[in-house]
Structures are given as C-alpha cells and as structure tokens.
Amino acid sequence: MSFRPLFTKNKPIKPASASRRRRRLGSSLQCLEDRRMMAGDVALLPIEAEYVDVSTLAPNTTEWTLDPLADFEFAGGADPFEQQLTASGEIDPNDLIFSASIVPTLAQELDARYDLMESDDYHTNCLGQNERWVRSNSGGWFFLTPEGDFFQWRGSFNNSRHLATFDASYYDNPDLIAEPETADVEVVIEGDVLKIIPGVDYTGSFQVAVGATNGFGGATDLVLVTVTPPEPIDDFKAPTNEDDPGGEEDPEELPTPPPVLMVIANHDFYYQEYADTRTSLEEAGLEVVVAAASTDTATPHNGSGQVGSGEVTPDLSILDASADDYSAIVFVGGWGSSMYQYAYEGTYDNGYYNGTEAVKLATNELINDFVDQNKYVTAICHGVSVLAWARVDGVSPIDGKTVSAWANTSPGSDTAFNTTRQEIEYNGGIMVESGSVGVAGTAEDDVIVDGRIITAENYDSASVFGDVIGEMVNDPAYIDEIFAEWE
User: Where is the composition biased (Acidic residues) (predicted)?
Assistant: First the structure.
C-alpha cells in the first residue's frame, strides 16, 4: 500500500510589525464600539482608548515537541486500540489540543483528483505497450504499465505525465486505483488518548496523522497502523481417555487424506495464487502434487507475486494424473489456464493459451472422474473458466452453481468473450460481485463452497482458499464418506 503525508511544512509567515498590530487592533475595537452604539448598548462596554498597546504583552516563547509515536500493530475483533499522546518541553499536556485523522492513500488521492471510473474492460495492450487503460468521468485517459507506473495520457507515450508508481498488483487489478478501498476504521481523540476502532472483520494497514496545538503553534507526527486478524478461538477438544475414564481404548484414528492435485499452466500461471494456496494446504497437513500440460518448467505471469523467476517444475503431466490418487483438484488462475478449457471453440491470440486436444480431453476426463467420485473440484481466479468450459454429462460442472472468480478481462481471442465473467455466465455459473463475500469490499475472503465445488476470486483470496480446501478435505465426515477404504 502506498502512503503520502497529509501535512507538509509551510513557509513561515513574517509577523506584522508592532505599529501595524496596534493599528489593526485599534481599528477592530473602534468597529466594535460603532456597532454597539448603533445597537444602543455602548454603556455596557466603554472604550477608553483608541487602541491597546500590544507591545506590553508577553510573547509566547514556550518550546515543546510532540513525542514521536512508534508504528502500531494489534489484533482486530476485540477492544479498541488506545495510545496516550504526550509532549515534551515547557508545556503542560493539559494545555494541548490533540487531533488525528486517517491519511488518504495515493490511490485515493488520485481517484479524488481525477474522478476515475471502474470498468469491466481496461483495453489491455490497446496501443501495443501491454498497458491497461483507466478513464476519468471527465473524459480523460490514464494508463498503467506492467511494472505499475501510472500515467496521464497526453497524446503519446513520450508526452504522457507520470503520476505514481504502484506494485504490479495494481496492473493486474486497476480497480485498486479506479475504486480504491477505504479502511473500515474510526479514529477518535478523547482528551490526550488516541483510540483506533476497526470494523469487526477489518484487517489491513493505513496511516494516521496525529497533531497537537497549544493555540500558538503546532506539531504533527505520522504513524503506520496495522490491524491483524483476531486470534482464532478453538473450542474443539478431541476426546481422550482422561475425558472418559470408563473408556478402555483411544478412538480409532481416521486415515490421512491423499495429496491434493494442483494444476498450473506451463506458461503464465499466477504465482501468488499457486504459492499462497499451496502454503495453506501444507499448513493443513496435506501433501501437494503439481501437474501441468507437461513436466517442462512452468513460468508464471510477470509480476504475479513471485520472488525471483518463480519457475515451478511440475511433478507430472496432467495426461498421467488419476483422480483415484488425490483428495481434491485445484486449478490455479492466470491466463495460461485457458489451455485446459475443453469445450472452448475459439482461438487465443497467444498460442500458449490454446493447448492441445489431448491435454483438453485429459483435463475434462480428470474433472469427470473427480465429480464421479464426489471429491472436491476447485479453482481460483481465471482458473474457474476451466470448470466453466468442462463438460460432465453434457453440461458444465458449475452450471447452476454460485461461484467467485476474476470478473474482468480474459485473454484476447477471436470470440466475443472479453471477460472471465462472460465465460462463466455463458456456461451457467452464477457469479457473485467482487468483494461481496464475507467482509464487504475486500476479496481476501471471497471463497464460495457450493456442494463439492469450491471457487475463489483471485490472488487476494488464495490463502483463505487453501484454508477452506484444507478444512473440507480434513473433515472427518468427508474422509469417512469418500476414503473409508483407505489403509
């Protein structure tokens, strides 16, 4: 997240001379006398001098500073966070008036200044620079580069005005600029105490500007505040012989589920959706096996959250995968996942996204086998389009299912499909709005379980996506129903 200071240093104002202050004050007092005479109450406030000699007043020479604040981090979902504000120097803190406000992010400032528009189509690569375009309500155009640089269009790339630099996630989702999220947080000052009150389900970071004044001068400080998820409350306690003194043996342990099969594209898979999902699955105690069209090294989308190259070597080809060996299947997003779309009849501009008939057929048969065995079939972001174009008994496995997925642009092709949403809805899927699941306005928990279909919106949702799959697969009822014959 980008932050910009709310307060800047102003040029000092030259104080008025003593004679000028006397004239100004005398004029103000004379004006007050005239008004009272007109009102007929001059006797209530006799004016005995034409002016007051302010040179006799003691100047304000108090020196003090606002004590700096360290960055805050606290768990949400509980009591408000409180921090006492203090000052040092020749000042009584009781003589200070404190203030605090949330500093707008750079994206919020740009949206407020240019009134940017959210869109379902950001015209990717319209002028051949892999740029993505955002429009203003006033008619102006702006564009993002794959590196996250944001420009105001001025007739040519060379003449365009550079406004900001974001991380690559803003290029992947320009809505982060066109419709920036607002922190669900209340900041309050009570005397000399700063109180930060987050919404019940809010997590994230934001910057707060804290100020203080004694009427003659002021000071400010900036502090970064991070609200982390609340500590989980685990009320479950497995039964033991101590809980049941009459028991003679420990209950029989359930078998460990077999691995989860993750399918990525050999070209342009979304790295963060792969890595965060895999991490959550492994933290749930599940082994992960990676498949692709071939065992050749798989390369991710540029700027999709990888450290270094982000290359992954698949464990096996999808041609050799069998549903019998796995507890669930996961299709990772990224435009490269288009290569697994069985019933898609168009041709993509990027040849890597077209896949082979053998790979598409093997993918569809694998999905059918998972469905026949009543195992979880899951996908994230553009990977949900693979489920959309699959066919089980002649229809898509998500026909009539509620799903979450990437709503915006899909790869260029010779078809009328311009967005992933169009592909999903064409095949009967019921797609929710972005950020509408769980905490409103965030995609972090946009994961939907509809029967044995689990879907998630995008890379923001990947960690929770993996958590949900792990929970479902490790559920004793699921294990007992699907894997009772395992040893």
Answer: 241-253
